[in-house]
Each structure stands twice: as structure tokens, then as C-alpha cells.
Amino acid sequence: MSFRNFKMVSYVVFGRGSFHQLDEILAPHRKGEAPMIFLVDHFFEGKPLLNRVPLRGKDKVILADVTHEPKTTQVDALAKAIKEEFGTISGVIGIGGGSVMDLAKAVSLMMNNPGSSADYQGWDLVKQPGVYKVGIPTLSGTGAEVSRTTVLTGPTRKLGMNSDFTPFDQIVLDPELTKDAPVNQRFYTGMDCYIHCIESLEGTYLNEFSKSYGDKALQLCQKVFVEKDHWDDESDDQLMMASYAGGMSIAYSQVGVAHAVSYGLSYLLGTKHGIGNCIVMNHLEEYYPAGVKEFKYMVEKNNIDIPQGICKGLTDEQFDAMMNVSLGMKPLWENALGKDWEKIMTREKLRALYEKL
Ligand code: NAD
Ligand code: ZN
Question: Which of 13, 39, 158, 305 has the highest count of CB atoms within 10 angstroms of its CB?
């Protein structure tokens, strides 16, 4: 038996207002004239946060359009544009939700690796470290700030660039930045963390490392979505730490059924990650009875709409495409259902599940 020896984020700062320290944090990583590239979620266009980005010299802000989740073509185009304009850069700073953080990680890697990011979708295919990269979440829940992957939709699949070169060199966890997130978006992204916890804690890969972080993250999610009646500053702090701990839990385990099924929706229908997981979780009583019960309670308590009937009228071909993507996520199924998962999750069974969504 060999145990995963995994690379973590190198530096972490946590605290309300810690974004102020960014200039000081970046200073030692500036290489002469080579600029820092700030990839900022397009949500912040015209917002005060943009004026707080500590630009120096030739630094540049690029607003990232995350209407759709990151694609390999988008990563390649960004990396190419940056190389053409600047040659070399000092680093990439991603400021936004999971989508922008994933874009920043992938662009950093593609500054130093040849070809297309699609060539590196998979496990441990990346050969060279990327440029210095910093992640600054403005939504809490995905765990993208700590993970060793960056989820990309490519020409043939939706799969991450999983590697030891993928984690950020630095993250800045400033809960103030998540303050103005809309209630629905905050819930969908927060539930990504909740669902990570359930899938990790109920999975066959679980060990004490994953369990300790998973228990803590779950407890923090319950504080903000089950116990409290009002959202306050403390809720932003708690959900940000939940996301961090949830991501750490996954480092040694895996996600499960909700994610495996949701990847199929995302690939075919473009359903976004957070809401897609919620749509699937709503129908997983058979696999996660207690988690699904509590999930439904949180949906009701927080007055959230979960779409229904999104697979109505799809063709056999379309169902097949979703099932192929989903069944391709072998480690997720194995974590959820054990080594014999293929006997349990047959195509018929999966089709019936998709039809319910
Ligand atoms: P997101 O990044 O896709 O953003 C959702 C929407 O919220 C966007 O319209 C964005 O502009 C907006 N937004 C961002 N910050 C905001 C704020 N403070 N206030 C208001 N609006 C804001 O959402 P997400 O749920 O954070 O991330 C989902 C993405 O993360 C998916 O692409 C998914 O594949 C990826 N993901 C990655 C990992 C990983 O380990 N790398 C894990 C889970 C999910
Ligand atoms: Zn997720």
C-alpha cells in the first residue's frame, strides 16, 4: 500500500481585510520588469474591488468572463495573449469564484508548458511548474483555492489538470470579499462544499485525515445554512473556512455520486457546477439518505429554487453522452460505491437517475 504524497498550497493568509496585504505579499515575487497579471471575475467590473488591485509597472488586469465554466480553449487563448503581449510574467493572480481560480491555475501552468491545456487533462500529465500563482476567492465552497486540480471543459471531456504543479503558491482568504454574493449563488457554491463533505465522509476512500477536515467543514456548513436565521459577517468567515477544510478533506478522498452525475449535465447542457450538484443531490436519497434529508431542509429554510425536469425531452444519444462522461469518472464511483461499482451503477440505473432530474 502506498499513500498519496500530496503537494499543498505554500502560503495562506486568512482574515477580514487581508486583501490589503496583497501588494506586500507579491513584492518578493516580482521578477524585474515582468508584470503580474490579475485575472479578475467580470462580476467586479466597475466595482470598488478593482481599484484596490495593487497595480505596479506593467501589471495588467484582465476581466475574466465566467458566464460559462472554464474551457481549454479559453485557457489557451489567455495564455497565448499574455505571452504575445509580455513574453514572460512574474505571476498570475486569480480573484473570483471557482471558475476564475481554475482559470488562473491553468493559465499559470500553460505559461510554461507547451501545446494545449487539453493535452494535460487527466492525472499527473503536467511536466513543468507554472509561473507564480495566487488564488483569492470571492465565493466560498468549491475548495478550488486548495485543490490540486483545475476543472476544464475540453474538446472531448470535462476533466481537471490534476498535478502537483497545480496548487496555488499563495492564497488570500478574505471573507469580506464574499459579502455581496447573491443569496442563490452563495447557496449553490456553499452546497458544493456541503456535498463534497457528504461524498467524502460517506465514501470508501475515507481515512482520518479526510474525516477530520470533512467533519469540521460539514459542521461549519450546518452552522450557516441550518442553525442560523440571518447571514452575518461570521457566516462569511465560517463558510470560507468550510470551503478550505472541505478542499483539504478531498485531498485524501474523493467526491462521489452527485459530482459524477453532475459532470454529465455540465458537459451536455452546460449546467454550472454548484447548481448541477444541487439538482442531482435532490434525488440521491438511495445513496446519501441523511445528507439528502438535511440538504432538502436547507433548501427550504434558505428559500432556494432547485430546477426540476432539466432532462425532459433529451434524445437517447444525449443521455448516452451524459452517461459516458459520468461513467468515465471512475475514482468518484469507486469512492462512492466501492470496487464493484460497475455492477451497482449499471447504465440502466444511471439512465433512470438522469431521467428523474
Ligand atoms: P463561479 O466561479 O462559476 O461563479 C459563479 C457566478 O458568480 C459568476 O457569474 C461570477 O461572476 C459570480 N461571482 C463571483 N464572485 C462573486 C461575488 N463575490 N459576488 C457576486 N457574484 C460573484 O462559481 P463557483 O461556484 O465559485 O465555482 C464553480 C467553478 O468551480 C466551476 O467551474 C467548477 O468546475 C469549479 N470547481 C473547481 C474545483 C477545483 O478543485 N478546482 C472544485 C469545485 C468546483
Ligand atoms: Zn464540487
Answer: 39
**Which ligand sits closest to the CA of 148?**
1
Which ligand 1 atom minimizes the distance to the CA of 179? 18
pLDDT of residue 60: 98
Does CATH place domain 183-356 in 1.20.1090.10? yes
Q: DSSP class of residue 206?
A: -
For the CA of 146, the closest atom of ligand 1 is 40
**pLDDT category, 156, cuts 50, 70, 90?**
confident
Contact 104, 39 (CB under 8 A): yes
Given a contact cutoff of 8 angstroms between Cβ atoms, the answer to whether 245 and 220 are in contact is yes
Give the pLDDT confidence of 99-135 residue by residue, as tens digits. Answer: 999 999 999 999 999 999 999 999 899 999 999 999 9
C-beta 138 within 6 A of ligand 1 = yes
Class of the 11-178 domain? alpha beta
The ranges assigned to domains in the chain are 11-178, 183-356
Judge whether 168 and 222 are in contact, CB under 8 Å.
no
C-alpha cell at 22: 496583497
Residue carrying C-alpha cell 499543498: 8
Closest C-alpha residue for ligand 1 atom 25: 189
Closest residue by CA, ligand 1 atom 37: 144
